[in-house]
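Fold this sequence, please.
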Amino acid sequence: MADPQAVDDNWLLEEDEEEKQPTSAGSPEQRLWRVLIVDDDQDVHAVTRLALRNVSFKGRELELFSAYSGREAFEILRDTPDIALVLLDVVMETDDAGLLLARRIREELHNSIVRVVLRTGQPGQAPEQRVIIEYDINDYKAKTELTTQKLFTTVISALRAYESLNMLERSRIGLGKILAGATNLYQIHSLREFASGVLNQVSAILDVGADGVLCLMQADTGDTTVVAATGGYAPLAENEQMPESHPLWPTIKKAFKEKKSQFEHPANVLFIHTQENRDVLISVTPPWPLAQIQRDLLEVFCERIAAAFDNLYMFGQLRKAQEATVVALADLAEFRDGCTGGHVRRVQQLSSAIAARMKERGVYDDELTPQLVDMIGLASILHDVGKVATPDHILLKPGAHTEEERALMQTHAAVGRSVLERAANMVDGVSYLTYGAEIAGGHHEHWDGGGYPSQLKGKQIPLSARIVAVVDVFDSLLHERPYKEPWPYPEVMTYIRDRNGTQFDPEVVAALNDVVERNPGLGQGG
């Protein structure tokens, strides 16, 4: 501790002054500036607190923490977020305790933002030039030169530097979240799922659990539709339109009218206009006003969202085109086999339901991929597309087939697989055609290896084909065919169960039982 006579008269010792307790967390722009005093001399703490008790910067006062050793200071820095400044003594429990702490702050805590000001009463023991070069500190002061005014200047300069670095760091983290979030959003297909993902990303960028409501306004009607909502606004997602009586409505209406974002705390509305002439609003209500850096980050994110919305729309159109093509191929095959009625549509519905149920049961996790669950329904309607190569006199024969006719009839599996494989190879990755080829070629294979065309056995048969194998027989028996009358439902289930483990995969049969028990309409051919 320096001689009091060498220090400004304002440095009065008040050892009994009560320390301020840490305040509750709030907006980064509303919290107190956190300053850590590290010194083994209690008088230094008292003098420093007295000198800084009325200091404020940008309307925020100081919150002072005290540590009396390097180890204690390290623990406070490790466990206390957002410490802006460390006023650090050099000589404490050891001659270089302060220097070691400065190094640990940077190397162990990886905290490059906190400002570190060394205060020493023995400058010769820690030469300034060597310390500045060898340690990542931000200022070096002798205690004898720190008058009240100079301490004030040092603290304010450090806080200003900390604020700038903190803003840069928050900007870096926010931009990283934007890039990661936009990448994830492109992987979401459903508009409502996409909108929910947008709200989650906005909450992450704001770094608060913000409530949010996403509204989509179609350009031709002007109606405001709630697409997704979170938190306290979740009930709004049940409304087809945004109620005009809602407290957010005036700000939302203003944003739509002016076609720009509105920041009117507590209502903050982000405006997004897409190239497909859709106006999208995201409304967030954090507990404190948004800082300018948060507004800027959200505006950048909105630009990415606009592009993502357009891509989602185009993806949806492409998906619809793919589905229409698949349906057309199936309709072509079904047109020649007119007595099958809605067979392929029922197969589509039941195949999707069984795949979803198997996912719930946790079976075949290695085979039951998200793509399979998503695509099997549409792919299943291609299971008999190879019948286009079957002659009418065989396909439409009302009676039993001869051995030769049966052999020709069975070629439809290989034909369908070959046609769909060639088409699938023209598309990168997994598509409906990929699973369609598996199903067309494998839905007449048997679990015990007694099927056709390749006598595959067990899990050699693709899971998609094992599912449709059960569904195809189930639906065919329930409904009239040129060669048979419809069977009663109990007899159909008896037939399926009797072939469990021989013709059919037991796990698929179990899932079928669950599905028809949950939805008896499926079992009655509904």
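Residues 1-27 have pLDDT under 50 and may be disordered. The CA atoms of residues 207 and 232 lie 17 Å apart.
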